[in-house]
Design brief:
Blueprint: H1 3-8, H2 11-16, H3 22-32, H4 36-52, H5 73-89, H6 97-102, H7 125-138, H8 142-155, H9 159-171, H10 175-185, H11 192-205, H12 209-222, H13 227-241
Helix pairs in contact: 4-5, 4-8, 4-10, 5-10, 7-8, 8-9, 9-10, 9-11, 10-11, 11-12, 12-13
This protein binds zinc ion.
């Protein structure tokens, strides 16, 4: 199996969703143990899935491989996401609807489709899926956009695509899944402040005001593009809490 076959046939997505036949799976495993780019793609795909598959299990757990593979950024993201989920699970009073409402993402990040290039390079299937998902996103159908964007990310995860997926998940009520995608989006410096602000919204949707306020304080202190919004939101949260 070669990298091109992996990309063209959507093998990574099928692998992390346990949809490959045994011989296909064995052939792919043989390849990705030798291939850094496919290995990282599997790790990130698993990280993306961890966010929305709270109960379900996939057959692959990259942490089992950690002792003999370098701990990459992707694996670190998986650990961060898992830690976040554990912290959240250990403190779960029923969320206050007024707090949850404050976590609404009023304006999603804008998306401008790339103009089709005449006679240009062939678009890969990850890009095609991404554009398909973003057409639904632009039309405001976030729930329908989520699975298509997920499929695109599983094939080729990038921080930018993760941000759009996070926004779509926030708008369709999957705050926990949004946190997972935001960990990846935030690795891009240009997206860090926005990702942190969105993760505060996700914490509010989950009713975790303490985590939300902590993140908002950090965004405010960073004095970046979301500092003012972060301060205003923190004030509203504190008002609701009666501080
Ligand atoms: Zn490969």
């Amino acid at each position: 199996m070669r990298c091109e076959d992996v990309r063209e046939r959507g093998v990574i997505e099928q692998y992390v969703t346990a949809r490959l036949t045994d011989p296909e799976r064995e052939a792919f495993e043989e390849h990705f143990f030798e291939c850094d780019s496919c290995f990282e793609a599997v790790e990130l795909a698993t990280a993306v899935r961890e966010g929305f598959e709270s109960g379900a299990r996939t057959s692959f757990d990259p942490r089992r491989l950690a002792p003999w593979r370098r701990l990459s950024l992707a694996a670190a993201a998986v650990l961060l996401i898992a830690t976040g989920l554990i912290l959240y699970r250990s403190s779960t009073p029923p969320p206050d609807p007024a707090i949850v409402a404050l976590g609404r993402l009023a304006e999603v990040p804008p998306y401008f489709p790339e103009p089709a290039v005449r006679g240009g390079a062939e678009r890969d299937s990850a890009q095609e899926l991404f554009e398909e998902g973003m057409a639904l996103y632009v039309a405001g159908d976030f729930e329908a956009a989520v699975p298509t964007l997920e499929a695109s990310l599983i094939l080729e995860p990038t921080p930018g695509r993760s941000l759009y997926l996070a926004a779509a998940r926030l708008r369709s009520g999957d705050a926990r899944g949004a946190l997972g995608a935001l960990e990846i989006a935030g690795t891009e410096p240009l997206l860090t402040e926005r990702s942190r602000f969105y993760s505060a919204l996700a914490h509010l949707q989950l009713g975790d005001t303490q985590a939300a306020l902590e993140v908002l304080r950090g965004v405010e202190d960073g004095e970046g593009e979301f500092a003012v919004e972060a301060r205003q939101l923190a004030e509203r949260v504190q008002q609701l809490l009666g501080w």
